[in-house]
Amino acid sequence: MSTLTLRQEPPERLDFLNVNPLSLSGLSEADAAKLPVGTSRRGLTLGDCYTISLDGSESLVIEGGSSRLDRVGASLDGGSIRVVGDVGQRLGAGMRNGSLTVTGSAGPFAGSGATGGTITVEGDAGDHAGGAVYAAKAGLDGATLIIRGTAGDHLGDRMRRGLILVGSAGAHAGARMIAGTIAAVSLGDHPGFGMRRGTILAGATGTVTPSFVETGTHDLVFLRLLARSLRPLSPAHADLAAGALKRYSGDLATLGKGELWVSAA
Amino acid sequence: MAELTLNGIPVIDTFAEAFDVAGTAIIITNDTAKWAMIAATTMTGFATSVIGCGAEAGIDCELSPDETPDGRPGVRVLLFGFEPNGLKDQLLKRVGQCILTCPGTACYAGVDGPTKIKLGGAIRYFGDGFAVAKRLPDPVTGKSRRYWRIPVMDGEFLCEDFVRAVDGAVGGGNLLFLGRNHAETLKVAEIAVDAARAVPGAILPFPGGIVRSGSKVGARTKGMMASTNDAYCPTLKGRAGTELSAEVGVVLEIVIDALTSHAVAESMRAALHAATAAGAAHGLVAVTAGNYGGNLGRHHYHLKNLLSKEPASEAGAA
Predict the structure, then answer these.
(1) Which pTM does this prediction carry?
(2) Most exposed among A53, B243, B304, B312, judged by the fewest C-beta atoms under 10 Å?
(3) What is the pLDDT of residues B113-148, one digit of tens each?
(4) Domain layout of chain B by residue ranges
(5) What's the average model confidence in pLDDT over B54-73?
(6) What's the CATH number of domain B3-18+167-317, 3.30.70.260, 3.60.21.10, 3.40.50.300, 3.30.70.520?
(7) Test mutation, B72, B108, B132, B146, chain A, max A CBs within 10 A
(8) Residue A219, pLDDT above cutoff 80
(9) How many other C-beta atoms are found inside a 10 Å radius of the C-beta of residue A101?
(10) Which neighbouring-strand residues pair with B272?
């Protein structure tokens, strides 16, 4: 297990795109210390901010996070990264494989464009978690994003594939969804606003957009499969899927092949 | 031919000749075991012989709720065809007409293999654009599986996107039971069928697993590819070419298809042992097997290799 230990709060935002088990595996500790991570003219390197201990393994622990740590695990293609602390924006953006865990909270755009692997945020996530960055075609795109705490607004905005599991989230969760699945204990107003396809499961929601129509309660095989695939990740969410649910179909202002399941209990 | 016996019943020293076929398995589930079985029975109807029916199909086993992907009672069905394309055609027709139509039924891939056969991805067109695909992680393997959800009048028909055909499936393993009268010989054949079906991955596609109209290649009638196996017809005894001794009054055959050559051999072994064990009480005269001289099928199952309880080595010679 390789370890990076934070010396002190970084003086500027840091870009961790190139700090992952694969890129560090071929480097000596001295070479790794020279990796540029700064985002200003100061020219900060990894060694300036972190004490480095490498053993070439596939797992990397970052002891000491910061809300200034951007793009942690971005484009990760295997192995695991565990951050003890917070991270900044675009956690695991474009990630393809592997596992990424943050014990604290994440900034905006966590998991944007991630096509594979599992991202776990044990604290809260900012706005647009699993959402598309500006001009991007899609948000989450096949990966699994687990947020144990609360996510901000626009969770899974324009997500295309994959699964988001969240404690609670703000308004417009699943807005513009292309497809995929979001499961939440509670969501804010207008879940699935403009969604084309996809599934949103929620224990409770705020105002439901008027272009969603209620189709009633249904005992579908799909819900059994959903409950079974959620169970290993979160029993509470699995119970939600297995319980009594009311279904809304929408957003009929667009393609209208999406669905919103809300607990009927 | 050397004289072989098993449980005191003569076993002719010959072999069953079987063929490489394309095979697949699907899992059918329903809210109740009864309705899963109704769907499976309907789907495997009129599937005794590839030549006439397009496919050979049968029920492999019933599955308990903890053995199926959706936690409902299920049935595993095996389907065999000459080649993957023909198999695909039959699978689509049978799932489309018998599983899609059956209340409450869902359909999943039941075996892994190298060849993909599009299933849900083809049947979804019945949904007229309202069908949606859903990719969910399998809780057991962690790999994602893709399903199609087609709106139907009782809710949704859920069907896995594709199933897989296996390499190495074998069709045509067989045994012939030479008996004295019909009722008793049928009992022997039934006992053999029960034993053969207990082997996982093997089915017996004929009615009740038993066929009375064994065939030979070719015919005296021009253009007929196959015709009655006159050497084993009791009413043709006494003519040149008959294989039946005077005391034989009835011959019944069982035919076995399986996903692996090993399963065919084990199924034949189980059937041979069960039939001969019960044979003396039911007037069984001898057991033999059908072949075409060994030039048509790649798999030869020699009965002498099946006399031991356990396989000594690979019974199906390549």
Answers:
(1) 0.92
(2) B312
(3) 999 999 999 999 999 999 999 999 988 888 899 999
(4) 3-18+167-317, 21-166
(5) 96
(6) 3.30.70.520
(7) B132
(8) yes
(9) 17
(10) none
Query: Do residues B21 and B50 make contact, with C-beta atoms less than 8 angstroms apart?
Result: yes
Cα–Cα dist A89/A103, whole Å: 15
Q: What is the mean pLDDT of residues B25-45?
A: 97
Burial class for B118, CB neighbours closer than 10 Å (0-12, 13-18, 19+)? middle
Residue A17 has pLDDT above 70, yes or no: yes
Partners of residue B138 in chain A, C-beta under 8 Å: 229
B76 contacts B112 by C-beta, under 8 angstroms? no
What phi and psi values does residue A184 have, to the nearest 5 degrees?
A: -145, 150
User: What average pLDDT does range A87-96 have in this prediction?
Assistant: 97
Query: CA-to-CA distance for A258 and A66, rounded, in angstroms?
Result: 37
Distance from CA of A221 to the nearest CA of B (A): 7
Mean pLDDT of all residues belonging to chain B: 94
* Category of B293 on φ-ψ map: left (φ > 0), alpha (ψ -120 to 50) or beta: left
With tokens 């279904």, the residue in question is A247
Residues of B in contact with A224 (CB under 8 A): 70-72
Topology alike, domains B3-18+167-317 and B21-166: yes
Chain A residues within an 8 Å CB radius of B158: 220-222, 225
Q: CATH topology for B21-166?
A: Alpha-Beta Plaits (3.30.70)
Which chain A residues are closer than 8 Å to B70 by Cβ? 221, 224-225, 228
Kindly list the distances between the CA atom of residue B229 and the CA atoms of A57, B211, B232, B292, in Å, as whole numbers in the listed order: 68, 12, 6, 11
pLDDT at B318: 42
The residue assigned the tokens 């934070």 is: A6
Joined tokens for residue B233: 């017809």
The residue type of B299 is H
Q: Which residues contact A38 (CB under 8 A, 6 or more apart)?
A: A12, A14, A15, A44, A45, A48
What is Dmax (Cα atoms) for chain B?
Answer: 66
Q: Determine which of B72, B107, B135 to mutate to test the interface with A (most A C-beta atoms within 10 Å).
A: B135
Helix axes A221-230, A235-242, angle to 10 degrees: 170
Return d(Cα B110, Cα B104) in angstroms, integer.
Answer: 18
Please tell me the predicted confidence (pLDDT) of residue B163.
96
Residue A248, pLDDT above cutoff 80: yes
What value does the mean pLDDT take over residues B29-37?
A: 98
pLDDT value at residue B294: 85
Place of tokens 């079987």: B18
